[in-house]
Structures are given as structure tokens and as C-alpha cells.
Fold each of these.
Amino acid sequence: MKDETTVSPTQLSVIMPAYNESHHIYNNLQQVCKALSGLNFELITVDDGSQDSTFEESRRAATGGCPIKSLRLDVNQGKGKALSHGFSNSSGEIIAFLDADLEIGPEHILQLWDVMRSTGAEVIIGTKVNSLNSFPFIRRVLSYMYRRLISFLFGFSLTDTQTGIKLFKREVLEFSIPRLAVSRFAFDIELLVAASRFGYQIAEYPVSVAYNREGQTGRIGLRQMFGMLVDTLGIYYRASFWRWLQPGLVTKLWMIAFAVGLFLLGIGVGKLITPLVLQPPIKQIFRIIALQFLPLRLRDWILLGIGAVLLIVSLIKLNKSILDAFARRDHGDLNGIYRRK
């Protein structure tokens, strides 16, 4: 006989990080509960060291019968830390991330869940690209530039990684979060990189976004932009072939020797090209290619800059190619370094 007191497992855990959101957190939590009524869910708010009454307001919302669990970090540690803390206190088989300002409506959680069921993907991310017209021009430019950087560094075909609504099967976060190092704005990138590297399928779904922040960039100032860039480059290094290789001193010395040799080779080629006696039209072509129409000192610096850019870009492209080869699923051969155990 079935035990009537048995509590069915939680289907969905919605984690909402919040920082200084006291002016609307109560109403927003009520709105989320209304949108998810009828489901077996829990709503976990994580106050990330707010300086206002965000935590008290979220606890007040919990007294109205909605399954709200209010957590608090004593000091501000970043959105990523708040999400990780919320996940460690969750019990749902499906985990949703949702920003507390509700610029993205909670009804989109159900839409992302439908996509997860229909596609079988373990990760569904909302994309706001179609709603960017409502954003200030500067914010749109910054978003575009960052998307291009992410695509270039990690080879993602995803159109947007920073939208504040995402849906995960629990095992993805159980496997990925312990391996993450970033706790602030680039947390989303590191999490998606980890999920992708370990073979989880990621799908997208367009969501509508209502921009209601003050100013052209909202809460994102120069300090946040710089920190996000540093964190993103740190993620690239930790996820790169060079970090996996962990070369010893001898290998590093050989790498330095290669770079020095390449530099000297470039100088040698430049010196050889300069005195060559060529006939038109080849002479004119080489004059353009070797920048011989410029002053000698300026030409050398330009060639050096071009060489440095080519070197950096080629190394990044090489790194992506190597990772693609090693990150394939296990086929019983050398593939599958990043496969799930």
C-alpha cells in the first residue's frame, strides 16, 4: 500500500539571486508563484549581501503560502556565488535561474521547460537578441561586442549567453558547478563552457526582455566591464589546451625559443626583402606588401604589430581546433578527454 504521507519529489527549483531589490522583490516573488501555480516547485531567493531590506522582504513573501526559501550571504560575493549557494540548497530535478528584477517574465520558465522536453537538451538558455531594440544604444553595442568575443574565444554558436533565465537538468549543475572558479558576472560563461565541454546539449529559446534599469548600461559600469573581461580571459585560460597540458620548465623554454626564433625570422625576412631588385609589376606589389613606401622605423613597428596579432589569433584558433579534437565523446580511442565519468 502506498504511504499517503509520502511527499512527491520537487519537480522544479527556481533560484533568484537578489542584490538591493527590496523595492520590488515582494511583488516579484508573488508574480513568480502565480506563474508557476499548479507545479510542484520551490522558489529559492539568495540575498547577495544587500544593503537594504531585500532579505526581510523575501521572508515576508514566504509567509503568504508560496513555497519560498529565503537564503542570505553576509557579504556581496557576486551573482555566481549566489546561484551556487542557491543550488546547494535546492532539491528540484529541474533547476531554473531567474533574475530577481523580472526583466524577463517568469512565464518563460514554462516555455523553456517545454523546449527541454521536446529537444531532449539538458540546458536551455533564453536569448534576448530579438528584444534588444528596447535597450539603450550603448548597452546594445556592449552586448554585441561581448557576444562576438565569446564566439571568438570559445567557438560558441549560441546567440546570447548572458540572459538572466536558464534551465538545467540537475546533473548538469552537479557535475559542472564544483569545477567553476568565477563567482561574478562571467559565471554564466564558465558554466556554459563546462556544460559544453562535458558533452551536454545546449538549446536556445527567444524571450522578451523589459529593460528597466537607469542609465545607458544599468548596473554595468567600467569596473564591472573590466572585471568581466578579466574573468572571461581567465575562463579561456582554464578551459584551454595550455592549462590542460601544464607544460614543464623545459617545454616552456622551448616555447620561448620558438617565439624568439619566429621573431628573428620575421626580421630576417624583412631585411632580405628590402634590398631585392625586382621588375614591374612585381616590384610594385612587393613595395605594397612590405610597406616600403613608409618610413623605415614606422614600417618595422607596423610589421611587428601585424606579426603579434597574427600570432595571437593563430594560437587562439589552434587552441580551439585542438580542444575540438580532444573533447569529442569517447569512441574507444584518444577522443573523450572531457567525457563525463
Amino acid sequence: MRVDGLVFASQKILDHIKQEETYKQIMNVACLPGILKYSIGMPDIHWGYGFPIGGVAAIQEEGVVSPGGVGSDINCGVRTLLLPLRFEQIKSKKDILLNKIYDQIPVGVGRKGKIRVSHNDLTRVSVEGVRWAITRGMGMEEDLDATEDNGKLNGSLDHVSQYAIQRGLPQLGSLGAGNHFIEIQRVEQIYNSEIAEKWGLFKDQVAVMIHTGSRGFGHQVCEDYLQSMQNISHKYKIKLPDKQLACAPIDSKEGKEYLSAMAAAANYAWCNRQIISHFIREVIVSVFKLKYDQIALLFDVAHNIAKFEDHEVDGKTIRVLIHRKGATRAFPAHHPVLSKKYSSTGQPVIIPGDMGTASYILLGTEQAIKESFGTVCHGAGRILSRKKAKKIADKESFYKKMKEKGISLKAPSWNSVAEEIPQAYKNIHDVIDVVEKAQLANRVARLVPVAVIKG
């Protein structure tokens, strides 16, 4: 190990980490060339490919980039739309809204997107990200300021395989499967009224949370580079404790090509969430007779990404490549990369829970910059594999509990729901407690689901 491992956890969460032996992956990541300060695990940490999910690593420019440190769903992320309505105002039409959104957004494995794009369109998406959708009437200019990095990294199709392009062409504007979802939510509690007011949040407000990523496009980019880097690591004589950590020097030809392809997939994902948001906004406008611009984007954060940021290490500010895999950027007030909209407050940090409990909106702290490179968890974190979740899932009991909580649900199949039952995840409240007690972020609001679309 070149650095120590640092895990943010309660005793309860630590017990699961020990049981799953996820700490071994923290130790393995600590062996990567160029890693700085710590190999970090967030409280939602669980076993992943090479890196744990919920893992963070900052690598100096002379070090390496590892596709396993980003993950297969490049820029899987989450965004939240805010309505100027209280739940009581939509309660009688909640299921109408749910059904109309479900009809408009393709969900499930391999589903094609709502729009059709050409190869030239995909070329522009890979470069422009969110702006591609906005210039075509799918969103507002203000959405850029409410998206991490304005919804764009320095990517292109130059180093993306034809197979990845073929997979990506039909899927733009689709939700996908797995743990991806669209939730209609109610703001159940406000913890910081001053920040909430500045962000446009209020008690009992209706919100829509969207969780999806780069679909087959990003998955194929990851697969392509995982395979090629198995040999590249040997080429550069990089010794690894786990072949799944296959990597290349950041400044090598192969490293630069992966970062370009990864950024293209990240731009695709941001654009995908933007397009889905647009169609959801149109549904809301039609159901509740609102104006399009009354439906504000609170923020959009990436969960699986590697990007260059400036951080202080040993008293010096240096440029590092931050790998966040199942982890969320959490920059506080006055951070230089924040847009004018959030410079005075810091950015909203969106942490979704499982479909039966709650999600949180947090605010990052200066302590997070010092301790975790401005990073917090990205969700509750799995404790059961999808296979094990399906084994214990009881359809009748599940739907009974959802009905008791007043939560409506739409999904392509029971199998897709069974994989994501609440019991498959850690308790989101326990995870947020760890984050707050570690002073990485503070609660601003808690949201609860009232209607869910599962991919």
C-alpha cells in the first residue's frame, strides 16, 4: 500500500464491510501508482469491480487512470426537478402523472430512446453534453448552471469503438434497468431553512428525481478499455494486487484515449438525463397547466466519473485525477468551479435512498475538501446482491407495504422490482448520519417517494 485506507462508517456499517471483506479492495486501490493521501471508502461502500462501489482515489498526474475506478455505467448520476406545487395540489392526479411519465420515458433492459439520433448527432452529444439537448429545445439555459461541470467534459468519439457507438445510437432518452429510476417525491422535512429557501425548496413540495447514466454506450466504453488495459498494465510494468485494477499512466497514449472516451460517455449521460427531464417537464405542464420554466432543475450530480480537479495536498495545491466510483462531488460555498448560481451557498448534493424510504439533499463542507477531496456517498449502498434480493423478495408483502406508505409503482416486470427491494440496501438514514457526523456534508432536506418508476 502506497497510502493508508480511510473508511467513513458506523460500527453497524463497518460490520458489513468486514463481512463482505470490502476493505481488501480499499487496500488494493491504495497500491495504485500516484495515489495521494488515502484510498477512501464512503459509508455506502460495497464490493465492486476492482474498486469498491463507494470508493474514491485522487491520483497525481504522474500516476495512473483505471477504468475500474469509474465503473461500467459511466456518469450514472442523479438530478432533481422542483415543482412550484405542494403534494396536496397533485395528490388526486398523482397516478395520472406517474402513468403519463411511464408512457413517455422508455424503461427496461435494452429499450430504445424516445428520440432518434444520427451518427453526426452522437458526435455532437459526445462533445457538447447537455448543451446539445438545450440547443434543440429540450431544456433551458439555466439548466447548465445546475449541472455538475455544466454537463460537459472534454470528450469526443475519436477513441470510442464502433460497437459502443452502435449501442449508444438508439438509447438516448431512455432510463434503462437495474437500480435506475424516476421518482415523484414529497419534501417531508426541511433541516436548513435558509439554504432551502435559496435553492427553491419548501416543505411538502413536489419533486421529481431521475437516476440513470450512459446506457449501453458507457458500458461498452468501459468493457473495451478494461480489456485493452489488461495488457497495457504489463506494458508499463505496473504491478497490481488485482488484475481488475488494470490501468495506464495518465499521460500515456492509452490513458489519454480512455479519458477522452470516458468523457464522451459522461457527456452522453448528462445529455440523456437532460432529455428525460425535458419529456417529464412536458408531461407536468400538460397535467397541471404549469409553464415549462416553472419546473426548475435543482442540480445534477455524477456518481461514476474520473476528472481533473485542483486540491491541496501537503500544503500545496496540485492538479489531481479524482476517481469517484459510486461517490458524489460535494463542493462547499465559494469553491472556484461552482457556477454563479451556487457560489454563495455551495452545490446541492443529492443522495437517493431505496424506493421505500427516503432521499436526502445535502450541502458539502470545507471538511469534505480536506478529508475526502470534496466527496460524499452516492446512495444507501447494497447489502444484498440482485440474485439474493430476488430470493427473499415477497411480491405480495412488498406491494402491501408500498400501498400502506401511499407509494404507487410502475415497472416492466416483478423481476426488475425484486432486485431493488428496500431490504437489498443499507438504511439510508444510517448512511446520512455517518456523513453528517464526519462533517462531510449537512442535511438540507429529506424527500420521500410517493410514486416510483423502476427500470
Amino acid sequence: MSDQLYYYTIEKPSVAEYKDRGSKFLAYAYPIQTADDFKKYLQLLKKEHPKAAHHCFAYRVGIDGNNFRVSDDGEPSGSAGKPILGQIDSKQLINVLVVVVRYFGGTLLGVPGLINAYKTATALALQLTPVIQKQVLINYLLQFDYTKMNDIMIIVRQFGCEIIRQESQLFCELEIGIPKGRVNEVVFKVKELQSVEMNLVKQRLI
């Protein structure tokens, strides 16, 4: 997976509702970048739905495929988090969080019923937001004299780089995400400018 130049994620948040025998399942899908994003959204939903019986979730972050988490939040083991993650994976999505909030309706659904409910609610939410293809970006920090700013920005635009953060004073710092397939070209072009310091930050998905 590490050779990937592109990945798929969702464009914007969505919410869908599924009902079964009185229980209501509200699925919230979010595009996220980090585990911190996940914590923020989960806290928001717990505040919004304090009386819900369960706040089950799954997320997958990063192209190596190893950064994921599932939670059944008190439901029988394997009946909620795994079905949610299964729907994210079936669409081959990355950097996606789905939280399913359940209001208990008084009738036990059993494990097969729960698996179906969490799976269906997640599938509905993911159908409501467009899937988009994004480039894998490699982050570099550039440090240079402000007189070089125009030259740097021409390179940034030419190779479709994304500006992550920018600090401009007499001496400028610019963190850019370079599309993975164009890194060698960009490094070569920047080094041609001279007196520009360029350091790899970390691989990141934007």
C-alpha cells in the first residue's frame, strides 16, 4: 500500500437514520485526518445525544492500513464496530470516521439484527456523501528569504502542491504537501533556487 499515489475518502460529513423494531440508529460519517479529529467528533455527538444508549464507531486513517479502531460501546462484542468498519473498507475509504448513535426501542434485536442495523446505517450515511480521490502528499518544510517567495509559489502551483502552513516575516517558513509522484521534480526545482532550506517533515494525507 505504501506505493500508493492516490487514496479515496469522503468529501464532507453526512448523516443517515435507520430504524428497526423501535430502535433508532443515527450514522454520522466524517472525513478526518487524525485520531484527535475522531475524539473531537465523538465528544460532540455524546453532547448532542446524551440520552442515547450507545455511541459505536469505527475509523481508518492513513494509507498503511494499520491505523484503525472499532468500538461496540457496550453492545455485544463484534456487533457494532466491526460492521461499521466493514462498510468503510468495502468502499476502500481512508481517513473516514463513522459514529452510529443508537436509541434503544425496548426490543432486543439479537446479534444478527444489530450487525445488520449498524451495517445498514453506515452504508446509508456513506451513500450520502461523495467519494473523492486525493493525492498522497509528502510534507516538506521550506525556509527561505522573502525575496524567494514568488519563485517558490510558481513551483508550488506548477506541481499541484498544497500549502499546509505559512509564516512570512523577513525570513519565511512554508510547509507544503507535495504529490508523492512529483517529489523528485519539486526537490530538484527548489534546490535550483539556492539558499532555500528544504526538509522532509512527515508523510501525511490531506
Amino acid sequence: MTELQGLIETDRLATLSINGSESLFWDGVANIYTSAIVWIPLALFAILLLIRNINPKKLLLVLIMVAVTVALCDQLSSSVCKPLFHRLRPTRDPYILNMVDTVNGYRGGLYGFFSGHAANSFGLASLFMWLVRDRWFSLSVGIWAIINSLIRTYLGVHFAGDILVGAIVGSIIGSLMYWIYYMISRKDRSRRNVHDSSLLYTRTGFMRSDVFVFMCVLFGTYTVIMISSCITQGLA
């Protein structure tokens, strides 16, 4: 029990070190970053990336794996673990709630273990990393998943431990979904003709030009978020 209490205290300290800042700009960035609307273009390009690079016979199966990944991560967090563990969010924790910075008064629900945002982010990132198999793509979506998760701690609605466990669970689920996809689809021998060219295609046959466009949209979204935050703070 003493060791558990020590972990809880360490988690509180780590959370407070990440949570909040004195910058209205970064508060604005965090607020916009967590908006689903800003990520719609990237989601559409992710679907386009799959459509253009996955064999039509396998495409439906891949889309099902994506949907199942999101559903499992979300439901395991919200319907199983949060009601089971009853761990209060930082904004609800009586020991630190007065020290937690919030943005626009957002405090989240009552319980936060484990983070569904982190699970979904790392679940999708892991699945796409396995599907595409490109170093720079993996680095890009990995960074996206990390930022998308830690921003929840910045906003004060998740402990660092909630994020860590969510990231682990999501990575396992995403990898498991890829393994299931691989085991089902490997019987189909039809493959894209990659011409043995690593300059044009990734190890799994994705066109590098399509992967590059996807990463441009990702970093373009970051730029839009930054500019939007500047404009918002200028108007405020």
C-alpha cells in the first residue's frame, strides 16, 4: 500500500509539472488541438492513403480493423476501466484540484483512468505504422500520438499515469488488430508490384509520394493550429 501511495504521489507531481502554463498562446493551441474538427482533413487523407495503397480485396478488412481499434480503445477505457477503477481526474482530485490549471474552465468527467484519447491515438498510430512501414511516417504519427495524449495532461483532465497506461493499451490493441489483419489476409497472395524499388514504395507497398502528402497534411494541420491560436489570442 505504501508503494502504491508513492506511485500516486509521483504521478501527481509529474502531472502538475506537465499541466498548464502562463501562456495564453499555448492554452489556445491545446484547446484547438483537442477539437475534432481540425483533424477532419487528416482523417480524410488517412482514408485516401488506404484506398490508394491497399489491395481492394483487403481494403474493407483494413477499414474494419481501424474501426475495431477505435471501438475497443474507447469502450475499454470508458465502459470498463473508468467505472471499475473510479480514479478521479486531476481536476476532481481533492489533493491537487486547486493547483490544476484548466483552459476555458474545461474539467472533463469524473473519472479518467485510463485515457481514451491516449489509447485511441496510440492504437491508430500503431496500426498505421504496421500497415505503412516507413521510418519517417512512423516518427510523424508517433509524435502526433504523444502530443495528442500529453495535451490531455496539459489541460488537467488526465494524470500522466492515465496517459501512460492508455498509450500502452492502445499500442497493444493497434498491434493486435494488425496481426489479425495479417493472419486473415496473408492467404491472399495478390500484392502490389513494387518493382523492388525502396525509393518509390515502402516495405509494404505504399507509395512514398502518398505517404509524403499525408505527412504534409499532418504538419500543415499543426501550422493551422498555431496560426488559429495566434488569431484567437489577437482577437481576444
